[in-house]
């Protein structure tokens, strides 16, 4: 099969969008068993764009080879097939979105069949991506993927989350900052700690507010995160934000109501 047939056709040969094929397999895995060997070969020997998509597809389907390749690329990011020439771009920021899409694939994999092997590989993959967190575009996608399996993952990766956040704050002080909204990514990552370590959420949230008082995207993410907390210091920070004329007053009031478990 040609790469386009492997990646962009359903099991019966009908052309379709990439993610339609991904989700079709998750509905009917048996229909795509014969495509797995072709995908694995494409992931290893195709053009960079096709190799990346093959890995995204295999990882989304909970395939061990997909996870193993993702881990290898995240561990050695200077040796990825697309190194130096991005093959996927975020439509809003134009950032290289390769690792963001791989993070999304980890989250998607929860829709497939579970096994101890996949659970272990998923944890290793998240840890590998967290090591790249301060320099790579993830938007909120890695955080969402972590939250999909939060109570399974958090006890084993919480130290990696702390390390990613600490490294990000080190990056904020550098002159050669990556061209990503890292502060928003950090705000989103704090949300993974809800129910586990809310004092840390509040501590870093205060630092973000202090360092980026005019970054509306970051403040909005923080409002969402703080509204899900039960820590009274989180409520106090929300009320403080309400007084700062951020333009997010409506969202802050909803977060406060969510905190207090009542409607505005």
Briefly, what is this?
This protein has helices at 3-8, 18-27, 36-45, 48-60, 64-75, 98-108, 116-130, 141-148, 150-172, 182-190, 198-211, 216-227, 232-242, 249-260. It has 264 residues and is mainly α.
Account of the protein in words:
By secondary structure, the chain is mainly alpha-helical. The protein folds into 2 domains: 3-193; 201-264, no CATH class. It is 63% helix and 0% strand. The protein contains 14 helices and no strands. The chain has helices at 3-8, 18-27, 36-45, 48-60, 64-75, 98-108, 116-130, 141-148, 150-172, 182-190, 198-211, 216-227, 232-242, 249-260. The mean pLDDT is 95.
Structural class, from helix and strand content? mainly alpha
Residue ranges: pLDDT <50 for 5 or more in a row?
none
Order of helices and strands: HHHHHHHHHHHHHH
User: How far do the termini sit from each other?
Assistant: 57 Å
Count of discrete structural domains: 2
What kind of sheet is the major sheet?
none
Our count of helices gives 14
Average pLDDT, to the nearest integer? 95
* Content of β-strand: under 5%
Structural shape: elongated
Number of strands: 0
Tell me the Rg in angstroms.
20 Å
Q: How helix-rich are the residues, as a percent range? A: 55-70%
């Amino acid at each position: 099969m040609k790469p386009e047939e492997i990646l962009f056709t359903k099991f019966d040969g009908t052309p379709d969008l990439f993610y339609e094929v991904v989700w079709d397999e998750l509905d009917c895995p048996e229909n795509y068993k014969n495509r797995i060997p072709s995908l694995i070969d494409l992931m290893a020997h195709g053009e960079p764009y096709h190799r990346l998509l093959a890995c995204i597809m295999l990882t989304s389907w909970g395939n061990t080879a997909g996870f193993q390749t993702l881990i290898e690329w995240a561990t050695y990011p200077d040796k990825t097939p697309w190194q130096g020439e991005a093959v996927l771009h975020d439509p809003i920021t134009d950032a290289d979105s390769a690792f963001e899409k791989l993070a999304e694939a980890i989250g998607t994999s929860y829709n497939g069949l579970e096994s101890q092997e996949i659970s272990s590989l998923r944890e290793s993959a998240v840890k590998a991506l967290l090591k790249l967190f301060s320099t790579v575009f993830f938007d909120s996608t890695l955080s969402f993927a972590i939250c999909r399996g939060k109570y399974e993952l958090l006890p084993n990766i919480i130290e990696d989350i702390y390390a990613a956040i600490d490294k990000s704050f080190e990056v904020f002080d550098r002159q050669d900052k990556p061209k990503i909204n890292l502060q928003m990514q950090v705000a989103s990552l704090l949300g993974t700690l809800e129910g586990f370590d809310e004092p840390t959420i509040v501590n870093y949230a205060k630092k973000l507010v202090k360092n980026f008082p005019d970054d509306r995207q970051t403040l909005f993410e923080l409002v969402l995160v703080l509204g899900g907390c039960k820590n009274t210091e989180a409520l106090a920070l929300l009320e403080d934000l309400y007084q700062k004329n951020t333009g997010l007053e409506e969202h802050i009031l909803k977060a406060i109501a969510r905190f207090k478990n009542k409607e505005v």
